[in-house]
Amino acid sequence: MGLLLKEYVEDDCLLGIWDITENYDELLLKVNLLQEEQELLNSFGRDLRKIEWLSVRVLLREMMGQELSIYYNGNRKPFIKGNAYHISISHSNQFSSILLSNIHKVGIDMEFMSHRISNISHRFMNDREQVTSDEDLKRYHLYIHWCAKEALYKICDKQDIDFRKNIIIEPFNPERQGELKGLVSSRSRKEYFKLNYFTIDNYVIVYTVK
Q1: Where in 42-189 does DSSP place strands (E)?
Q2: Range of the domain at 182
Q3: 8 A C-beta contact, residue 168 and residue 185
Q4: Residues 186, 130: one domain?
Q5: What is the 3-state secondary structure (H, E, C) of the chain?
Q6: In a designed cystine with 26, which of 22, 40, 49, 89 is the match (CB 3.0 to 4.6 A)?
Q7: Does one domain contain both 8 and 97?
Q8: So what's the pLDDT on residue 138?
C-alpha cells in the first residue's frame, strides 16, 4: 500500500501515514542512508524493528520530497538535524506515522486495537477521567485515552510526566473522529492542550499541536 495518508491537519502541520507492505530489502531501496544511519540500522536485532525504522524514513522522504535524517536526543525525542521542523513519530503493527511542523510543537500516537486494554487501564487512567459504560465502545474509548496521553507525553518532551498522575483527559463521548482536551500538570508545567483523534481500520490516531 505504501503512502496511506498525507494531508495538512493544521495550516503548518503535515500528517503522514505509511502502510508497511514492503519487506526489508524493498524499503531499503527507497532511501539513501548515511553511513551512521546504516550502522544504526544494522545494530537492531529484530527484523521488525528494522522495518519499522526504515518505514519512518521512507515516509519522511515521501512527505518532504527529499532526504532528511532523523536523530534522537537524550530523552529519545526525535529531531531533524540541521532543520527547523518539529517532528513526532509513532508506529504500531503495520502502520507508521509522522507529524511535522516548522512552527508548532507536535505530538502524535497511534495504536492498533489488538488487546483488552481494560486489563491495564489502571496504569494510566485516574479517578477524574471517565469512560463509557457501553461495552461495545469501552475498549475504543480507552485506546483514545491512551493515545492522547502518549501524544501529550511526546509534545512535552517526555520529561517529568506520569501518565496516571500528571495527565488528565477531560470527559468526551467517543466518535469515529473528534476533539478532546487534556491537561498536563506536573512540577514543571500546568498546560491545557487540544487533541484530535480519528480511526483508520482498527487503528486509533491522536495528535496535538501547540
Answers
A1: 70-72, 78-80, 86-92, 95-101, 106-112, 167-169, 177-185
A2: 109-209
A3: yes
A4: yes
A5: CEEEEEEEEECCEEEEEEECCCCHHHHHCCCCCCHHHHHHHHHCCCHHHHHHHHHHHHHHHHHHCCCCCEEECCCCCEEECCCCCEEEEEEECCEEEEEEECCCCEEEEEEECCCCHHHCHHHCCCCCCCCCCCHHHHHHHHHHHHHHHHHHHHHCCCCCCCHHHHEEECCCCCCCEEEEEEEEECCCCEEEEEEEEEEECCEEEEEEEC
A6: 22
A7: yes
A8: 95
Whether the CB-CB separation of 51 and 38 falls below 8 Å is answered with no
| Cell numbers that stand for 129 in this block | 477521567
Q: Each residue of 103-153: pLDDT tens digit? A: 999 999 999 999 889 999 999 999 999 999 998 899 999 999 999 999 999
What's the pLDDT tens digit per position in 1-29? 799 999 999 889 999 999 999 999 999 99
Task: Judge if 41 and 130 occupy the same domain.
Answer: no
Q: Which three cell numbers stand for residue 120?
A: 491495564
Show the cell assigned to 83: 532543520
Q: How many domains does the chain divide into?
A: 2
pLDDT in tens, 61-77: 999 999 899 988 877 88
- φ, ψ for residue 191, nearest 5 deg: -150, 135
Interhelix angle 47-64/35-43, rounded to 10 degrees, is: 150
